[in-house]
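pasting for ref
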Amino acid sequence: MSDTPAPTPVAHTGAMKFLLGRRSCPAKTLGAPVPDRAALIPILTAALRCPDHGKLEPWRLVVLEKPALKRIAQLAEPYLEQLPLAPEKAEKARRQFGDADLVVAVISSPVQSDKVPLFEQLLSAGAVALGLLNASLASGWGANWLTGPLASNDAFLHEALGLVAPERLAAFIHIGTPVRTPPERPRPDLEKTVSWLPR
């Protein structure tokens, strides 16, 4: 048996400080400027360094810049009219696209696998979404994870983003410059959400 001592963990104190204080920015508080393509590439690269059992890459990203978002906002109108939504909620859903300057759609794109169940592949897409959110915030931008009433509408998602079954939308990540400090909110109580199994 080796007498070599176990290595001492090296804490990434800056990263932990960021994670313990991170706050999403409401999408309505985000505006221009937004990251250009050169600034967005490292953010996207960081997001894709996520847990991915089997290295299947069961996700893809669609970057929506201002012209695409205006088109999608117009496209959304007839779909929203078909939903039992109050007019103000339908308008809010349309403006989610129309008022945005940059959105990255995270698409769950599962791969046929005998080893990795669909549930794990869906979780991997969620990990990409969180990684994208955090990488945006860590890069100094504001960011917010949204879905909305059309996030599960297959016909809309196919027409707007080219999704085909069995693909699903995991998240719309809005990225921009926050016009005000994001609000703090109550955080989970560890006493209620964490349990410790005895030996």
